[in-house]
Write a sequence for this structure.
């Protein structure tokens, strides 16, 4: 039994992943409403959706850029693109490019060294203009690498970043400029999740380094508030998710994970986990935006579920105990009454009458319950009717139990669990009705933001909702098995057989 | 007595079910042959230029652009069979938009100047067609995949049932919203796909349980022992045994799906000019209240009738409730 329950719950994980993949795939089919605004966005749209067999890390990009540079004629558009890309890769590419000069012919190595001249200027190297001279460029970079090559280590970058965060002086910043993009991982490690007012200066100088080496003009202004600073840091984190792989060399396990991470889904998931949900400030911001509507929708669903369940049980029991023409009439009434007024009419009436007495949310919940009533009653009635004729009910009656007690204590026990399970599983389906009622009652629930998010092609909220509903269904199914076995121990062997069979 | 005959006899015993079936048949007829009830063009016209049949279907735009008198002039001298109401859902009234009820337009006109009576008549097709087609596809998929899960077992069973759980857990509104965002033409295909994707899981569960129950039954063992092929066993025995629970499941789904279509239209995701859209127009976009009332009544009658038929089918297919429905004699006596 325990194994079955654990297995059912564990199945929730692949189910949630499957739902996320399916939803992402579906939402990715939406036509893009605008051209990509940035290079990283353009690159992201060009990625495979779920599996990237050839993730392009720093080494692959350096090789491709160098090959493009050497295959194009001097002064051509391709050569300019290759030069720009090489400079964009920056200091992180130097450990791969400069030591490889010996493997190139004299002309090729001169072209590569000359292409790095802009980088020397950005890094603030002494005599940077010398690197522009084709005759001197190779010698310049070789000398530089002999003198400073040992600085291009992770520990050095971390030390310099720490010193900058601690002292915040221009000279410390220049130390990091010299490492250029090689220092980015260390700087991002130090960017804080939360900020106190006295930490603003440290964050500002770190962001200044990022802006300098990446040539992205996104800085924390001198008069910026803590909130503005955190928003700026969030933007930088988002950028880093897209740019990270191109600025580090993948090894071992990192390369394997890149097959999944360097995809459109991987990038989105990483962004959701590290920025949207991984950082306290953004998490709080999203929670504030979503929790209100979620609370409204859940309240409507909860009240509707309770109304439908309680009224459905009472109605089904009454119908099961009656028969003949009266039953016929009751069937007609039950089937027609809520339908004849339908959800909208029920909702409209309650929006006027009910909102005054129980509030709009309560009235919407009751309307939802009334709409679900016929289905709930119809599902329960046959089971109750059969249970009323069972031996245990007859025995209870023979022992002198009242008909009411016999019905509610014995006949309803088994069917009720099934009904509750079925009703709990129906909750995701009730969302549609809830969204309609939110519109009728002008409630600020989840419906409007969700539909707007889908129309905009945003994947976060729809996937979150799908995962929530799938997890709910799995947990309810597992809990139902437990409840059924507790109420009816005869079911235990059957479930064990099902477990063995699976 | 066959299963079908027994079901028929049991259904006949229910007066409510008979009335509901009659209404459903009428609604279905109106949906399929809406042009017979309301159209701009004649149903059939025989004249010197030949025979024109169902011109509202073959050239709707041409007739929608013509006024009623122009259509009459065109077919003057022809032998013409006109529809019951000579206005269609595409024609814009020359009298204007948002008209009050009058002899020309008994329910008035909407914001676009279209006759609301014609819209309501044709709205049934838009409301029922995607529902019925979606339900049929879902039932077929559920039958095949449920039977596969139940008979093959093992990994097939596990995978298909998890897939069913997965599909069943996704709210239909979300599936439809995504599909409509991908293809905003709102032809009804999105609704059909959404219903099929979400609904098959429910059917598959029922079929799987029934197939598990039947797998060990004597009749299946005997059929296999007599040398019947798996397909023959499926066709002759399995399909017949599964017919009753499947009919119940389908019948119970119909009212829910009729309502679902209306709800989706209300949210702007359904089919244009369906009953749900007419209601939504009245609520959200200041459309015709009279049209909305008519649509609500028709929708309610259809959903209610479907619910009554479903109830009757469930009763008829359930041996436990046989006596309570067919003989009007109480099976359960609680004192």
């Amino acid at each position: 039994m325990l194994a079955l329950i654990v297995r059912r719950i564990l199945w929730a994980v692949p189910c949630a992943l499957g739902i996320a993949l399916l939803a992402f795939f579906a939402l990715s089919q939406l036509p893009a409403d605008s051209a990509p605004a940035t290079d990283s966005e353009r690159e992201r749209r060009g990625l495979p959706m779920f599996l990237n067999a050839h993730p392009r890390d720093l080494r692959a990009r350096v090789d491709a850029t160098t090959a493009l540079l050497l295959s194009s004629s001097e002064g051509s558009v391709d050569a300019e693109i290759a030069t720009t890309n090489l400079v964009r890769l920056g200091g992180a590419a130097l450990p791969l490019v400069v030591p490889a000069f010996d493997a190139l012919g004299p002309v090729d190595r001169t072209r590569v060294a000359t292409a790095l001249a802009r980088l020397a200027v950005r890094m603030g190297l002494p005599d940077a203009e010398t690197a522009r001279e084709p005759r001197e460029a190779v010698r310049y970079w070789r000398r530089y690498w002999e003198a400073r090559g040992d600085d291009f280590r992770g520990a050095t970058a971390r030390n310099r970043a720490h010193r900058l965060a601690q002292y915040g002086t221009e000279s410390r910043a220049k130390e990091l400029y010299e490492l250029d993009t090689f220092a980015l991982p260390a700087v991002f490690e130090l960017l804080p999740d939360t900020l106190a007012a006295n930490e603003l200066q440290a964050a500002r100088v770190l962001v200044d380094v990022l802006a300098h080496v990446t040539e992205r003009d996104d800085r924390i202004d001198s008069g910026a508030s803590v909130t503005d600073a955190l928003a700026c840091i969030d933007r930088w984190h988002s950028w880093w998710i897209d740019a990270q792989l191109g600025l580090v060399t993948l090894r071992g396990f990192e390369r394997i994970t890149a097959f999944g991470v360097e995809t459109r889904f991987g990038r989105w998931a990483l962004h959701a986990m590290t920025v949207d949900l991984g950082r306290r400030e953004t998490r709080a911001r999203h929670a504030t935006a979503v929790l209100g509507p979620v609370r409204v929708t859940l309240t409507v669903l909860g009240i509707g579920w309770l109304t439908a369940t309680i009224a459905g049980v009472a109605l089904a029991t009454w119908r099961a105990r009656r028969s003949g023409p009266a039953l016929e009439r009751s069937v007609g009434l039950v089937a027609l009454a809520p339908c004849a007024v339908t959800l909208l009419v029920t909702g409209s009436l309650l929006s006027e009458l009910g909102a005054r007495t129980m509030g709009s949310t309560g009235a919407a919940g009751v309307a939802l319950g009334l709409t679900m009533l016929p289905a709930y009653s119809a599902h329960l009635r046959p089971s109750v009717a059969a249970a009323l004729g069972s031996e245990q009910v007859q025995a209870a009656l023979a022992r002198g139990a009242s008909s009411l007690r016999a019905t509610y204590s014995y006949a309803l026990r088994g069917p009720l669990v099934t009904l509750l399970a079925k009703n709990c599983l129906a909750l995701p389906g009730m969302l549609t009705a809830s969204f309609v009622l939110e519109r009728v009652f002008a409630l600020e629930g989840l419906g409007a933001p969700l539909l707007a998010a889908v129309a905009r092609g945003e994947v976060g909220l729809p996937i979150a909702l799908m995962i929530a509903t799938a997890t709910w269904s799995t947990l309810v199914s597992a809990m139902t098995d437990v409840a059924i076995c507790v109420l009816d121990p005869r079911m235990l062997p059957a479930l064990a057989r099902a477990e063995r069979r699976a | 007595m066959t299963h079908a005959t027994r079901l028929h006899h049991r259904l006949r015993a229910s007066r409510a079910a008979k009335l509901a079936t009659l209404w459903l048949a009428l609604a279905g007829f109106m949906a399929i042959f809406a042009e017979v009830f309301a159209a701009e063009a004649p149903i059939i016209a025989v004249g010197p230029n030949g025979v024109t049949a169902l011109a509202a279907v073959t050239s709707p735009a041409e007739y929608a652009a013509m006024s009623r008198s122009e259509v009459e002039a065109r077919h003057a001298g022809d032998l013409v069979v006109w529809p019951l109401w000579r206005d269609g859902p595409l024609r814009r009234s020359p009298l204007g938009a948002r008209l009050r009820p009058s002899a020309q337009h008994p329910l008035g006109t909407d914001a676009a100047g279209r006759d609301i009576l014609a819209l309501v008549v044709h709205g049934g097709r838009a409301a029922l067609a995607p529902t019925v087609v979606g339900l049929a596809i879902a039932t077929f998929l559920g039958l095949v995949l449920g039977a596969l899960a139940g008979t093959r077992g093992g990994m097939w069973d596990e995978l298909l049932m998890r897939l069913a759980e997965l599909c069943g857990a996704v709210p239909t509104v979300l599936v439809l919203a995504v599909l409509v965002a991908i293809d905003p033409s709102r032809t009804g295909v999105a609704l059909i796909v959404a219903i099929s994707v979400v609904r098959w899981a429910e059917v598959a569960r029922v079929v799987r349980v029934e197939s598990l129950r039947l797998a060990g039954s004597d009749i299946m063992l005997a059929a296999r022992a007599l040398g019947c092929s798996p397909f023959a066993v499926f066709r002759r025995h399995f399909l017949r045994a599964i017919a009753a629970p499947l009919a119940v499941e389908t019948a119970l789904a119909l009212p829910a799906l009729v309502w679902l279509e209306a709800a989706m239209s209300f949210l702007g995701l359904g089919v244009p000019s369906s009953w749900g859209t007419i209601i939504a127009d009245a609520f959200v976009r200041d459309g015709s209240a009279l049209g909305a009332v008519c649509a609500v009544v028709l929708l309610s009658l259809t959903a209610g009738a479907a619910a009554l038929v479903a109830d009757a089918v469930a009763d008829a297919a359930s041996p436990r409730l046989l006596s309570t429905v067919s003989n009007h004699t109480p099976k359960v006596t609680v004192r």
Observations:
- Chain A touches chain B through 73 residues (CB under 8 Å).
- The first helix of chain A runs from residue 2 to 10.
